Amino acid sequence: MVAVDRETDQLMGSCFYHPRETHVSLGIMNAHPDWFGHGVARTLLEEVCRVADADGKPLRLVSSALNLDSYSLYTRAGFVPRSFFQDMVIEDVSRVPRPASGIRSAILDDLPGIVALEERVSGIRREKDWHYFLTDDHGWRVVVKEAGGTVNGVLASIDHAGSRLLGPGVMVEEETAQSLIANQLQTDRGGNPVFLVPATSKGLVQTMYSWGARNCELHVAQCRGEWVEPQGVVMPTFMPETS
Ligand SMILES: CC(C)(COP(=O)(O)OP(=O)(O)OC[C@H]1O[C@@H](n2cnc3c(N)ncnc32)[C@H](O)[C@@H]1OP(=O)(O)O)[C@@H](O)C(=O)NCCC(=O)NCCS
Fold first, then answer.
1. Disulfide: which of 84, 135, 213, 235 matches 88 by Cβ 3.0-4.6 Å?
2. What is the pLDDT along the chain (243 residues), one digit of tens a residue?
3. Distance in Å, CA 85 to ligand 1 centroid
4. Ligand 1, from 2, 5, 42, 45: best to mutate by most atoms within 8 Å of Cβ?
């Protein structure tokens, strides 16, 4: 969605939103510096809120906790901060152990199990997104942990010049999250990817520190409307595909 000055045709701002089965996601939002503080972002956001309300769906996003402008924009519009994440990076992976067995690259047949797992852990459904991650050949890689025919964890990663990230991912247990992170970090993804760890997953955070992880930013998942408390580990990214 874009905001355009009717007199000059100048682009005043833009934002990305994505309706999904259970919710609407909001992605990158920006205003042109000439228009900062003039209500451009608030007006765009009001329009996206109308789309979500018309669909009767909650609106979700992951925003930087260090950006007071966007934090204020969203919380003024009725968003509630729900989960807090540490953006971590491990430059030297020599302390990352070999992951436990049972982890493999995901195939398209895993799609129903992945979608069901995300619904169980996060309360959201987005089959098309996972289909895209599984079939795209521009740098996405998806790994799963499976036990007895049930997917207990999934973690995607993207290796692209514009973005090197682990996530999105959902796992029933912290140990599964550790194994999936280790697997992704030990596969050459063209650099040191950033990944978001829930600050409340204490064991996972401590394990990442013991592997040499450093914090490089903080993010917060925000929701306007009904929020489902996660039942496991949720690893979003701060890109639009994630919330
Ligand atoms: C964040 C950004 C999109 C805001 O755009 P904007 O058009 O200047 O924002 P608005 O003028 O609509 O103002 C948003 C609201 O936040 C309020 N606000 C800003 N700072 C605030 C603060 N510290 N405390 C409380 N409210 C604050 C404003 O008063 C306004 O509310 P109001 O209209 O009810 O008075 C813009 O600064 C930007 O593009 N930044 C760079 C890109 C970015 O960081 N994007 C967000 C992450 S994806």
1. 213
2. 999 999 999 999 999 999 999 999 998 899 999 999 999 999 999 999 999 999 999 999 999 999 999 999 999 999 999 999 999 999 999 999 987 788 999 999 999 999 999 999 999 999 999 999 999 888 899 999 998 889 999 999 999 888 899 999 999 999 999 999 999 998 877 789 999 999 999 999 999 999 999 999 999 999 999 999 999 999 998 775 555
3. 22
4. 42
Does 38 contact ligand 1 (Cβ within 6 A)? Answer: yes
Topology at the third CATH level for domain 2-84: Aminopeptidase (3.40.630)
Using DSSP, state whether 218 is helix, strand or coil: strand
| Strand bridging mode 140-147 / 150-160 | antiparallel
* C-beta neighbour count of 53 within 10 angstroms: 14
What is the CATH code of the structural domain delimited by 85-235?
3.40.630.90
3-class secondary-structure state, position 26: strand
Ligand 1 closest atom vs CA 15? 48
- Annotated domain spans of the chain: 2-84, 85-235
Peptide bond into 168 cis (omega under 30): yes
